[in-house]
Amino acid sequence: MYLGSTSQHLLAMLGIDWPIVQAPMAGTSTPEMAAAVANAGGLGSMGVGAMNVKAAEDAIKAFRARSSRSLNINVFCHRPAQADEAREAAWLRRLRPEFEAVKGDTPATLKEIYKSFVVDEPMFTMILAAKPKVVSFHFGLPPGEWIRAFREAGIVLLGTATSLREARACVAAGVQVLIAQGYEAGGHRGIFDPDEPDDQLGTLALTRLLVRKLEVPVIAAGGIMDGQGIAAALHLGAGAAQLGTAFVATDESAADGGYRAALFSDAAGHTVMTRAISGRPARCLANRFTALGARVGTGEIPSYPIAYDAGKALNAVAKTAGEAGYGAHWAGQGAPLARSLPAGRLVFELVEEFGGR
User: How many CA atoms lie within 13 A of 58 on its CB side?
Assistant: First the structure.
């Protein structure tokens, strides 16, 4: 397949050979995965939203020990958590039977386990000094002065958008490339305000909308699992495609055995958008946690990432008891197309499939 001028321009911006972006996937992506993808000619990515500054710095160093190619560092720009002791206590009471079922102790309290990038100046300072080729934003945007500093350092900025309004906000703030995240995408939905109405635009419609309405490159994301999906995204006018679920079962992934087993089970055909696990909407393989989430109202669930403190605690004790059904098994609607092989080999096969060679 001939790569048009849109793709060629984007590949030059990102310093990559192929229109393939491995999604950051905080908690699942690793330096080894990102390096394997980068060395194969795609954009390797790491999500640092769940890391402290030292862990993020070490991850960047680990990548650079394995690759000199382009790296994308992804940060979470959500509104800082809003504590609500009454709602958190009620949520723990709601989860108590689940903890008891796996012979675990229910936490006494919950806390904000991740600091939002928008208030994490030490993380900003570290990333600016590390100067990765790309920095991408999820859940919103950081302060304007930080965006300007990244741009002045020569870092290419990507912003996730689930709507035209969010895309326009990204462009107005100085973001150079848009990630059009369709509703079928796995993991956390990048919507800026999860409490506002969500039009739930699919990848096809959203990608085409952003391509037609805006003058910046677009990366299509959501439900893309193979080279044919990449080709479709490029035909829509996207400069590249971002794939996350496709990399979950690769050799370099941090996904545990329960996650991998679920991905290749019937659950792959029944992904669910749920807030129950983390406090923000995220698409997950159907499991015990998503079933629980279907029985509770949005107003019962604590703020992100306070709710995630409970979710991680429940998953930890459940795994000890041999129950994998409470995991954050993030996956998109293309999950039944997953395959298990090394990340670099997957990139090679994707390129072969869309006719890039």
Answer: 5
Q: Do 205 and 187 contact (CB within 8 A), yes or no? A: no
| Dihedral in degrees, nearest 10, Cα atoms 226, 38, 49, 174 | -90
For domain 5-80+115-253+338-354, the CATH class is alpha beta
Burial class (CB in 10 A: 0-12, 13-18, 19+), 30: buried
For strand 177-181 and strand 156-161, is the pairing parallel, antiparallel, or unpaired?
A: parallel
pLDDT, tens digit (0-9, with 9 covering 90-100), for 144-192: 999 999 999 999 999 999 999 999 999 999 999 999 999 999 999 999 9
Residues of the chain with CATH 3.20.20.70: 5-80+115-253+338-354
Tokens of 178: 């848009």
From the list 333, 330, 332, 279, the residue with the least C-alpha distance to 309 is: 279
Q: What is the pTM of this model?
A: 0.97
